[in-house]
Structure formats: C-alpha cells, structure tokens
Amino acid sequence: MNEASRETLDGLTDRRNAAANNSPANEERRQFGGSYDKLSPAARELALAIDNYKIANHRRFIDHEEMLQVILSLGYHK
C-alpha cells in the first residue's frame, strides 16, 4: 500500500496495516524490555513471567490481582 492510498478523505492516515510496513508501531513493547540484564535472577524470573502472562492474555498492563496470580504461579506464598 503506498502513502497516497493510505490517506483517507478526511486527511487522516490509516495505520491499521502497520505490520505490512515494519513500522515502529508494530514492535512489541514490554514493561521490563531492555533491562533484564540489570535484574537479580529472581526479579528477572518475575519480569519474564509477567511479560509472558501479558502476551498470553493480550494485556498491555496488568492489575494487582493479575500480578498476584503470576507471583503465585511461580510458587511464592505468604
């Protein structure tokens, strides 16, 4: 799709096909992405578990209950 065909009648750009043009909008954004190397092993495990949960459940952000589910799934308990 070329740029001219992406323009709508109102002058807005149609970005629904961002995957086709490898734009930065198509990149995955992770809460801990790029900083795993600075984490302790336990924190790295938690960050990866949270990211995997978000991917599996199509969530960008998780709430406290979801984070507790992830922590419990790793075997932590009170």
Write up what this structure looks like.
This protein is mainly α. The chain has one domain. Helices cover 38% and strands 0% of the residues. It has helices at residues 3-6, 41-56, 64-73. The longest helix is centred in the middle third of the chain and has 16 residues, at 41-56. The model has no long low-confidence stretch (mean pLDDT 78).
What are the key terms here?
elongated, 3 helices, mainly alpha, 78 residues
The N- and C-terminal alpha carbons lie at a distance of 55 Å
Characterize the biggest β-sheet.
none
Succession of helices and strands: HHH
Low-confidence spans = none
Number of extended strands: 0
Please tell me the overall pLDDT.
78
Structural class: mainly alpha
Judging from the principal axes of the Cα atoms, what is the shape? elongated
Whole-number total of structural domains: 1
Treating each run of at least 4 consecutive H or I residues as one helix, how many helices? 3
Q: Approximately what portion of the residues adopt beta-strand conformation?
A: under 5%
The value of Rg in angstroms is 18 Å
State the helical fraction: 25-40%
